[in-house]
Amino acid sequence: MRLARRPVYIVGALVLVVAATGILGAAYFLGIFDPHSGLALDTFNLVYGTEGSRLDTCETCHTSRKVTNAYGYDLKPAFEGKKLTAAEAMEQLQVMIKTIEELDSDGDGYSNIEEVTARTFPGNPDDHPLASP
Ligand SMILES: [Ca+2]
């Protein structure tokens, strides 16, 4: 009798795992849960003290939720092809943010650090220090 229940528990556990995976996957797809964005944005804000500024948004690195802009593209080597813990990812991203400071990712004539200092978007060529309000 006791052995007969074991398969039921195993099936129940598998159903729970599949359901949890499905719920997290759906939440990710719908944009409710994204393990990447908060971490990356927190790291950017930590490096530049931009929390609460106009750069404290996903638009700093993305044109849409899953598409990176030119600045986000230049930061990709920090993550791409690597399995990192959250702490390792933050560390790698901090290094990459500093590494690309002198680049002009969006090609608007201003380096990334000039843009960040002026609080303009380093991945949007239509937004640069002289074009800012
Ligand atoms: Ca720009």
Can you offer a commentary on this structure?
A hairpin with a 2-residue loop joins strand 1 (62-64) and strand 2 (67-68). Strands 1-2 form a two-stranded antiparallel sheet. It has helices at 2-29, 35-48, 70-75, 86-99, 112-118; strands at 62-64, 67-68. By secondary structure, the chain is mainly α. It contains five helices and two strands. It has two domains: 1-33; 34-131, no CATH class. The site of calcium ion has 10 residues, from loops.
| Strand order of the biggest β-sheet | 1-2
Low-confidence stretches: none
Q: Which ions and ligands are bound to the chains?
A: calcium ion
Mean pLDDT, as a whole number? 85
Amount of helix:
40-55%
Please sum up the structure shown:
This protein has 133 residues and is mainly alpha-helical. The chain is built from 5 helices and 2 strands, in the order ααββααα.
Based on the model shown, name its key terms.
binds calcium ion, mainly alpha, 133 residues, two-stranded antiparallel sheet
Secondary-structure topology with pairs:
Layout: H1 2-29, H2 35-48, E1 62-64, E2 67-68, H3 70-75, H4 86-99, H5 112-118
Helix pairs in contact: 2-4
The chain binds calcium ion.
